[in-house]
Specification:
Blueprint lengths: L6 H13 L2 H8 L3 H15 L4 E4 L2 E4 L1 H30 L2 E7 L6 H13 L3 E6 L3 H9 L5 E6 L6 E9 L1 E6 L10 E2 L8 E4 L7 H10 L7 E4 L2 H11 L2 E5 L10 E7 L4 E8 L5 H13 L1 H8 L1
Parallel strand pairs: 3-4, 3-5, 8-12, 9-10, 9-11
Antiparallel strand pairs: 1-2, 5-13, 6-13, 7-11, 7-12
Length: about 300
Amino acid sequence: MYPGVELRVMRYIVAVARELHFGRAADRVHIAQPSLSKQIRVAEEELGFNLFHRHRSGVEVSSPGTVFIENAEQALRYAERAVALSRAAAAAEQGKLLLGVSPVIRQELFFRTRSAYHKQYPDVEICLSGQFSGQQTEMIMRNELHAGLIELPIRHRGLSVINLIQEPLAVALASTDPLAREGVLGLKALEGRVTAMISPDTDLSNKVVEEFLTHVRFPLSRVLRLPTMDQVMDYILHENGVGIVRDHAKRWQTDAIALRPLVGLPAIYTGLAYRRDNRSPLVRNLARLVRQIFALERQRMVG
């Protein structure tokens, strides 16, 4: 039957093997020498062999002692690793996760993420901070945020980015506009119209949209850049204008404003960004979790 030498006693045995001196070994493990000697003797009796040969001139490790000590050192390393991993797991299950959320993305992404994270790690407090992509990038790199849900693309050597969803664009226009009677619209339908968009300074994804418009020779002189979605909608209502907006702007759809699918423009993306060298278990768990909860949307992007 296994004698069950405790880890504490294993540490004493290893200390003696390293020092080859009971007194120095006792100092090393912070125990009185008589107590250390006695506990090693008890262990030897339980094991059924001597770990050490004791001489007047010093201590020598026995042959079976050599085998035992090699494995004891490995057991101690495993024990230390178990403690370290357990502490890391405990750190991941408590504390505060500082998460940025861009105001221009679908806010439902945040609520899905928060709900899933809270379900798995109920003792972690998620603190929301609302900034646009550029601000979030700076805060993430200064460790003022753990991560951010942001519009893409964002390019920064220090960031890791996980694409979560792609989103089509739509045309917003007054319900009384003749175009509102169409089911789907293309860019040709907007020719000659001043077209409102959220400024790329606010919604980073609109840089991609503007680059595409330039490529297809859509006159950017006819693009009105506004800071907020509210202002885009006000322009549509009061100027009988049109706007290119994210598909999730359907929440602004009323009896006065209609949204119609817009074909021929590239989809835009939303993702999770975090500092590449961040080893926090809070961030690791967040990255793993968003890959799981947005797995279907991520498959559609590559499918």
